[in-house]
Amino acid sequence: MKIKYVKSFYHYLGVNLIYTVVLSIFVSFFDSIGIGFFIGLAQFVFTTDTAGFNADNNAIFKALTSLGVESSSVRQVLFIGIIAFTIKSILYYLQQILNAKNTANLVHKQRQALVNSLEYLSYPAFIKHDFGHIQNVSTTEITRFNYAVFSFLNGVQYLIMAFVYLCISFLLNYQISIIILIVTLLFYISYSPLKKYLSHLSGQFTQANNSYNSLLFQILNNFKYIKSTFAFPFFSKRINTHISNAEKANYNTLRASAITETMREPILLILLCIILAIYYSINHTISIFALFSLALFYRTLNYIILTQNNFQRFNSYEASLDNILNLLDDFNANKEPPFSGKPFSFTNKISLENISLSMNSSSILKGISIEIPKNMTIGVVGISGAGKTSLVNVISGLIPPSSGKILFDDLDSSEIDLSDLRRHIGYVSQDPVVFNDSLYNNVTLWSEKNPENKIRFDKIIQTTYLEELLSNYSNNEDTLLGEKGIILSGGQKQRVAIARELFKSPDIIIMDEATSSLDTLTENQIRENLDELQGSYTLIIIAHRLNTIRNADIIYVLENGMVVASGNYDRLIKESSAFQKLIQQQRDY
Questions:
Q1: What is the CA radius of gyration of the chain?
Q2: Going by C-beta distance under 8 Å and a sequence separation of 6 or more, which residues neighbour residue 559?
Q3: In the 3-class helix/strand/coil scheme, how is 210-270 assigned residue by residue?
Q4: What is the pLDDT, as a whole number, of residue 51?
Q5: What pLDDT sits at residue 518?
Q6: pLDDT, position 308
Q7: How far apart are CA 268 and CA 157, in angstroms?
Q8: How does residue 53 score in pLDDT terms, banded at 50, 70 and 90?
Q9: What angle do CA 569, 429, 562 make, to 5 degrees?
């Protein structure tokens, strides 16, 4: 068993893992005392012809006496045995309660760890991940992790029990005990191919589930397109293949487990016969006590096989453990810098000095130097792929520049607390973000519905022309918008997204093609609202429709990751050929 798995169990269970193992030891100890006294008593009954009871002639009693457990009569032996079994039962109950607590908390702790890791994951690392993989880890794989821990704890319990009983068997008959050790070793070696087979099946199951969840995620996110274009058959064929692969791997795993469970009793009997045959070939006789001792050895071997079965079951979850641990390791390795530094503020301007950005061996931004005065409206325009969105990603701290500096007044962005910076930034993307919740919660991000927040909410609804949406539904602001705002039109989604950022009252509002999905009338309404906001916020507007930034204070024109022109609308339309080209392309369109 890999030590990294045990470390991960301790990471999530902490001292409870140690408590569980300690309880297993005590359960085994008291169980062995009880069994030891009863076997010793049986040995005395079967081997003595005289009245009375002499514990000194019995190996079991000698061993227990050396541990401080005194016995002088049959009645006392029976009483001690019953007490030992009673204590063992109480401890075993406490152990099972602790196991239940461990397994109940494990899913919670792992999902919490996953969410916390996502919170601090850098944006460049996030976009490289398969969302279906993350979803599979957060559901199926975490459940299998729970099963793995349960199998591990059971395996440890049975391993300790097997060890204790093997110690007792040495006291009774060292020859048979040595034979048991040899046979057990050969038994474990014979399981090696099965272990590799189960690990292979676990990998197949995990990979098939990753692929299934990835495709399902794509279907849910693109349902409208897939439905309207009859693309479902293509997805169904692919997803059914992965479902079949997962089913096949899971079936083969369960079949292997069923075989080992079914064969446990026959294997035990075969091993006992082998042990008995070897013992007879050595001693040429089998005493009554030797036959009685085999009952104890049967129990010992049973625990050994149960240990093997549980660790075998654990092996079937190895790929899931690796899947979870590797994902969390990747998240932790790609954390953003710690959220610490100076508080964010700026009173004068944002300065970008010779900013360059390269990703995946491609140069995206090339030596950009611009200024964004406070409470001015800045337009950023250019053809698709010019670097507009990358530029605002750098300004908002989502992606660190490859070179150059960003200054808020005279403070380098690398010295600012990223979390504080982002608290002062509003962001409206081209693809509007709408949560599966009420309109009120979408706009206020679950703020308390007190009179002050309600007044602010109502004012923002008017500003973004969402009163009609409220009037269409009887639940008003408590109307559920559905997954990704499914009940809304494209323009309504965008206005909800804009309303959320206005409610937040940030210092900087970034509009990334925020009006591109709106009809002309609604776009003009939003543009008028943006004009009204001028002077109150620092607005950075990436615009596809150039009318949106007609009244911007400064417009920067980007080509191939470089600023090729800047100025207000009237100046650029007269002096910049690049801007004139964009105007002409829009007219032709």
A1: 36
A2: 382, 383, 386, 578
A3: HHHHHHHHHHHHCHHHHHHCCCHHHHHHHHHHHHHHHHHHHHHHHHHHHHHHHCHHHHHHH
A4: 43
A5: 66
A6: 78
A7: 19
A8: very low
A9: 50
